[in-house]
Amino acid sequence: MWYGRVMAETAPATSLLEAARVSRGFTQAQLAKASGLAQGVISKLESGLMPLEPARVATLAEALGVPAALIDGSTVHGPHARVFHRKQASLPAKAANKLRADMILAHVRVSRLLGTDAQPPAIPRLPLTSDLDVPADRAREVRRMWGLPKGPIPNIVELLEARGVPCLMWDVSSARVDAIASWPTDALPIVLLGSHAPGDRLRFTVAHELGHAVMHELPCVDCERQADEFAAEFLMPRADIKDQLRDATLPRLAQLKPVWGTSISALARRARDVGAITDSQYRTLNIELSASGQRTQEPIPLPQERPTAITQSIARRRAAGETLDQIATDALTTVPELTHQYLEAA
Amino acid sequence: MNAIDPTLAHGHPLAAPARPTAHDRLRDKVLTITSTESAEAMAAHLDPSYEGLVITGADRLSKMRRLRRVFPELLLIAEPDSHSKFEATPDALWHLPDGEGDLLPAPTLEDILDGQRQSGASIVLPPSGFIDVGDADTLRATVQAANKLAGDDIAVPLYLASGWLRPEHTNFLIAVMKLSTHPVLLSFGSSTNPLSTGRRHEIYRDVVVSGGVVSWRTDLAGLEALAHGALGAAIGAAPGLRRFTPPKDSGKARRPDDPSPYVMIPRHMHYMKTGAMREELYVSAPAPSCRCRECGGQRVDRFTEKQKDAAARHNHAVIDEYARAILDADSRRRPLVWRGMVHDALVAHEATAATVGRPWNAPLDVTVWAES
After folding, report:
1. Which residues contact A160 (CB under 8 A, 6 or more apart)?
2. Are A213 and A204 in contact (CB under 8 A)?
3. How far apart are the two ends of chain B, measured CA to CA in Å?
4. Which residues touch B105 (CB under 8 Å, ≥6 apart)?
5. Is the CB of A224 inside 8 Å of chain B's CB atoms?
6. How many angstroms separate the Cα of A206 from the Cα of each of A70, A199, A203, A236?
7. How far apart are CA A137 and CA A99, in angstroms?
8. Mind listing the pLDDT tens digit of every residue in chain B (372 residues)?
9. Residue of A128, A129, A130, A131 for testing the chain B interface, max B β-carbons within 10 Å
10. Does A274 reach chain B within 8 Å, measured CB to CB?
11. I want to staple A213 with a disulfide (CB 3.0 to 4.6 A). Which of A183, A208, B182, B244 is the partner?
């Protein structure tokens, strides 16, 4: 089975205890207080220096509100992954750690929830190999490889899920990002979509994360800009959009927003970047956007694209006779968490 | 008497002296770009050892044929006007005119280059189109297609939107310039000044110098690039020839109400309309006189609307002085020589401001060069 190799290459199991703790927002001291165990013991359990005995596991699982099977060492956690997100410098450490922990748990749970429904991801790796390569080349190449027609992409979340990239709505607002993605080289990738983000911004962010997956192995100085350029060409190909953006005004951009599924700001930027408007026109558009308050709250809100791969998989399992309790147990979560995080949120 | 070459004595054939390639001919050259109407008057002022003439306009080939007969040694180039009316795409890189049926078939790219050769061009240019900002596909394809053209007398003009002068494009531009096997003539176009900010000036120099290209359709920025290692520079004799206006745009004159010519004020690195000199700057003090070969000690604000050719020759003479100072220096010292002249220009502005009794700032580019 496709996951077998993945699991063999993952990190020590005990870090799932740490992931569960951090995901719940506990420090070691807080968990020690809640569970009655010494902080030093928790530290040793997390780092694998002390065996996970059943009594301690049960105590910790109760304190954390997670199934004992998640932290008893019988399950290994998710694979090492390439994780990129914007505004890394300003991301508070606590929020970053929580997000990382959420991602580890999501890897474990999503792979179990999808089971045999999971497809090997079909994301091409096309790094930029020289200064003659530009991100727009890669965006066009991915569109070509995936057989996408000219023009707007109707639903990028659906597109990614169809290529083996499950997505989840998630509260990532504490990290001040619209989405975060994990791209393991050897396991299921996952994209956590910010439940707070407007639909147009979310689409751009998903395309941005796809750009990372396609082009980047390690974080780099230009990675964020390159991912933005990839996203812009992927969602708004120069050849298809340039004529529509010529001498664009705010009302014109507002008309185009639902057509291309990108924000007015992104369309204005695109207009400048493809030469459809001058730098001076771009400045004017930005001043108008700010003066009218549309920069913080754009008109014509677009609905979020909701992921379906996981909910459909759960629905199939239920139709086949499994109860929610059985599915939650298999996914190393609780029924309320399964319902809240994987069913209702989607 | 020369000694006999030993290789001859042993019966080996001598290699013919290598014909200068386009690269050789453009290296350390300062070209003047002019209209067909002004070409003859300008040609007589050029020193073939380090200068050359670029002729623009509809009758450029016939004008070049006439000039070639009179100036056999002068570097002559006829610049196609394709960039002003044609935007290149990956599917149509060159502007090739339509034919007129079987009797007059459409000329091929080779026909166009041969036409320039037969008209006496020292270096021939394919009819490149305008390339809009970010259109990396077309830019790369243009250079790759030009690389397939045989001939060491070819240079590739690239007419790019000024929007390319952003930091995110710098490395790509340099890489594309280096990809070319022919010398590149690099120009940036806009309906206004393509080098409108200090940032753009810096990127421009970076690309032109690191890319090893000719700074094309430019002004003193070409000399700045030359001083720092650009292959050469081609400076326009009139404002419209110091940049280009992309197709679908229309050029915007800064002072459309003033028909007087732009004239370079000696030692100031400052182009100014003579009308503005008379009405705004040299009001309480006379304009300086100029000792260049065109002016012969007359005042620089004397040029009228009808004396644009003479004004262009004066501009050339002033620029020529800067150019010779750069080219006379060892390549390592050229940046210092340039910097010295730039600082002199700043000081000259302060002195003039004191003389005329009003503040007068140096142009943005001079300030940027002084601070870089």
Report:
1. A167, A191, A206, A210
2. no
3. 52
4. B99
5. no
6. 29, 11, 5, 14
7. 32
8. 444 454 444 556 666 667 889 999 999 999 999 999 999 999 999 999 999 999 999 999 999 999 999 999 999 999 999 999 999 999 999 999 887 777 778 889 999 999 999 999 999 999 999 999 999 999 999 999 999 999 999 999 999 999 999 999 999 999 999 999 999 999 999 988 899 899 999 999 999 999 999 999 999 999 999 999 999 999 999 999 999 999 977 766 667 788 899 999 999 999 999 999 999 999 999 999 999 989 999 999 999 999 999 999 999 999 999 999 999 999 999 999 999 999 999 999 999 999 999 999 999 999 999 998
9. A131
10. yes
11. A183
Task: Tell me the CA distances in angstroms from A298 to A265, A288, A293, A301, one per residue in order.
Answer: 9, 12, 8, 7
Ramachandran class of B300: left when φ > 0, alpha when ψ lies in -120 to 50, beta otherwise: alpha
Measured between CA atoms, the residue of chain B closest to residue A282 is B163
Most confident of A103-112, A191-200, B66-75: B66-75
Quote the strand ranges of chain B, DSSP E.
30-35, 51-56, 75-78, 130-131, 156-161, 184-189, 214-218, 232-236, 262-265, 270-273
Chain B neighbors of A132, CB-CB under 8 A: 140, 172, 175-176, 179
Helices (H), A261-306: 264-273, 279-291
Neighbouring-strand partners of residue B262: B273
Amino acid symbol at A199: G
Neighbours of B305 (CB within 10 A): 12
A275 and B168 within 8 Å at the Cβ level: the answer is no
CB A277 within 8 A of CB A244: no
Q: Do A275 and B175 touch (CB under 8 A)?
A: no
Contact A275 B136 (CB under 8 A): no
What residues form DSSP beta bridges with B75?
A: B52
Which strands sit side by side in the sheet containing B214-218, from one edge to the other? Answer: B75-78, B51-56, B30-35, B232-236, B214-218, B184-189, B156-161, B130-131
Residues 110-149 of chain A with CB under 8 A from chain B are 130-132, 134, 136-137
- Which chain B residue's Cα is nearest to A279? B163
Decide if B81 contacts B54 (C-beta within 8 A).
Answer: no
Where helices occur in B329-363 by DSSP H, the ranges are 334-356
Here the tokens at position B286 are 């006379």
In the structure encoding, which two tokens stand for residue B45, read together?
Answer: 């002022």
Instruction: Tell me the DSSP string of A182-227.
Output: EEESSS--EEEEETTS-HHHHHHHHHHHHHHHHH-SS--TTHHHHH
Chain A's closest residue to B131, CA to CA, is A275
Q: What is the pTM assigned to this prediction?
A: 0.88
**ipTM of this predicted complex?**
0.85
Query: Which residues touch A313 (CB under 8 Å, ≥6 apart)?
Result: A113, A114, A115, A117
Structure tokens at A339: 């319902």
- Cβ atoms of B146 and B156 closer than 8 Å: yes
Closest by CA position to A104, among listed A24, A197, A196: A24
Question: Which residue in the block uniquely carries the two structure tokens 């400052």?
Answer: B270
Tell me which DSSP letter residue B259 carries. Answer: -
When computed from its CA atoms, the radius of gyration of chain B, rounded to whole angstroms, is: 22
**What is the spatial distance between Cα A297 and Cα B325, in angstroms, rounded to a whole number?**
58
Contact B338, B223 (CB under 8 A): yes
**Burial degree of B148 (CB within 10 A; 0-12, 13-18, 19+):** exposed
Question: What are the structure tokens assigned to A73, written together?
Answer: 């060492």
Residue A163 exposed, middle or buried by CB count within 10 Å (0-12, 13-18, 19+): middle
